[in-house]
Design goal:
- Helix 2 runs parallel beside helix 3.
- The chain has 8 helices and 11 strands.
- The relative contact order is 0.11.
- The strands form 3 sheets. The chain has a 5-stranded parallel beta sheet, with helices on both faces.
- It folds into 2 domains: 120 residues, Response regulator (Rossmann fold, 3-Layer(aba) Sandwich), CATH 3.40.50.2300; 97 residues, Arc Repressor Mutant, subunit A (Orthogonal Bundle), CATH 1.10.10.10.
- Helix content is 40%, strand content 20%.
- The chain is an alpha/beta fold.
- Calcium ion (CA) binds next to loops.
Length: 231
């Protein structure tokens, strides 16, 4: 993937320190410049100082709630166009609708997969800053289109489950990099969900099968005692 034209800036608003750091870490790993706020009031001050390209905003925040921050920013002409992705532990449809009615551009329910959230962030930025994000990843004869969720090998479409798709996106972002099972769990399943590391092996097996469904060599490498890599 070509490097982004210019580093997009992301404001992460999350009062839970561990969640804030996981998000910031992953966004920085994706090449974003990240600023952090731990409550709604701080978020509004930071936006005033320097409006980010996108905001990832927790719903439940001390002082000023995420919903209120969203409402205020969407009322202002200078900040209206900044995409906002709301995070919420609430999953009821009525809350989702309320979140979107407040003007949020997207809505993600906790616990979420980090890969999924990164895809949503890229999708929003593709709309507002298309030059800053790439949607197609290529490795060897494999092509992954993050936007349409399609994978091709040597021009033939591959059938992949959602977990295998997220595993492959992780690998294709950094070909050659060795990922431990724990790192893959964090990236693909999300840290909030308990999943046994053997689950990773099962899905790696499925991914290998899927990648070779029309023939070709197995591109996934097992690194003894360390984990897995693509290429
Ligand atoms: Ca919260």
């Amino acid at each position: 993937m070509a490097p982004p034209a210019e580093q997009p800036t992301v404001l992460v608003v999350e009062d839970e320190p561990a969640q804030r750091e996981v998000l910031a870490y992953n966004l920085e790993a994706e090449g974003f410049r990240v600023s952090r706020a731990e409550n709604g009031e701080e978020a509004l001050i930071l936006v005033d100082e320097d409006a980010p390209d996108i905001i990832v905003l927790d719903w439940m925040l001390p002082r000023v709630s995420g919903i209120e921050v969203c409402r205020r920013l969407k009322m202002r002409s200078d900040t209206r166009s900044v995409p906002i992705i709301m995070l919420s532990a609430r999953s009821e449809e009525v809350d989702r609708v309320r979140g979107l009615e407040t003007g949020a551009d997207d809505y993600v329910v906790k616990p979420y997969s980090v890969i999924e959230l990164m895809a949503r962030v890229r999708a929003q930025l593709r709309r507002t800053r298309p030059a800053s994000v790439g949607s197609r990843l290529e490795f060897d004869d494999i092509l992954l289109d993050a936007e349409t969720h399609r994978v091709f090998r040597a021009g033939e479409a591959l059938k992949l489950g959602p977990t295998e798709f997220r595993l492959l996106s992780t690998f294709m972002e950094k070909p050659g990099r060795v990922w431990s099972r724990e790192q893959l769990l964090d990236r693909v399943w999300g840290r909030d969900i308990y999943v046994d590391t053997r689950t990773v092996d099962v899905h790696i097996g499925r991914l290998r099968k899927a990648l070779c469904q029309h023939g070709g060599e197995d591109p996934v490498r097992t690194v003894r005692g360390a984990g897995y890599a693509l290429g």
